[in-house]
Amino acid sequence: MEANHAHRSSSETLMAALLSSSVPASRLLPSLAADTRRLRCRLAFLLLSPPHFSRALARLRAMSLPSKAELLGRVLIRSLLLLLPALSPDGSHHLLRIPATDLDAAILLLAMCDSYSPPAAASSSSPSCSSPVDWHALLVDDAVGSALSISGLGATPWASLAPYVDAAAKCRRFADVVSQERVAVGGGKDGEWRGGASYAAVLAMPPAAGDGAPCAICREEMVRRGGGGVCALRPCGHRFHWHCALRWLARRNTCPCCRAELPAEDARAETRRLWRAVERMATGDDSVGCA
Ligand SMILES: [Zn+2]
Ligand SMILES: [Zn+2]
User: Fold this and answer.
1) For 169-189, how does the pLDDT look when each residue is reduced to its tens digit (9 = 90+)?
2) Domain segments of the chain as ranges
3) Whole-model pTM?
4) What is the pLDDT of residues 45-70, one digit of tens each?
5) Where does the RING-type domain lie (predicted)?
6) Which of 26, 98, 235, 281 is a good FRET partner for 263, with 20 to 30 A between their CA atoms?
7) How many A from CA of 218 to the centre of ligand 1?
8) What ligand has the least distance to the C-alpha of 239?
């Protein structure tokens, strides 16, 4: 599947998907520019307020490596969803909502990823390599530099697109890296993800009437009565007992009948699902099937 478009870089795939997107640039660019301004203002606030900066840095340092990876994944997915709103048609994707307590840590983490380069950090710090990086100084330098750039000055609305394409392109690399890590830990066979479906997607499943057919999970008949015991999966509409579907979707985000994918709760699994949808958009296959 991936071999077909191996010649395409992530950015090229994204640009192709953008061109096929139904959201006009006149609507997309101002919303991206507004988001950039919001995040940049928050970063400036963190850099100007020592207690807030320390709190966000402490929050980040207290996180385990998997939690940091999850947070980074959420932030990258956020860029992807803002860039391609078609991936989340109702704009209510669960990963767009980053908890307020994590948002400052996320903004800091993103700024750190952008500004950190090992040689620069080594030459700017004292001769001892073990001295900690002065993140505050590094981020202030970087923030001033980017505020004075073309995109920072808002000289052209197109300039606000580039950071989002960059961040969204990182999604694929992020998914590749963490999927290797998952395989090493003993994850699913055949690259299959074991992450459960997102709680929001499960809660949004509509109740359905049983039609007397057997439930594909437990093989027992779904009785003919309205609502309550039976639900229909989105996007495919296959029906199962509620309790069977809940047990199944706690461990997987695919339909047991047709393997249609539901949004995943885990940012890593969700990154892979969304990226596959981006590739379908880029190749003009409009069965995005992401809702
Ligand atoms: Zn069942
Ligand atoms: Zn199905």
Assistant:
1) 988 888 777 766 654 444 444
2) 2-192+267-282, 199-249
3) 0.79
4) 999 999 999 999 999 999 998 888 88
5) 215-259
6) 26
7) 4
8) 2
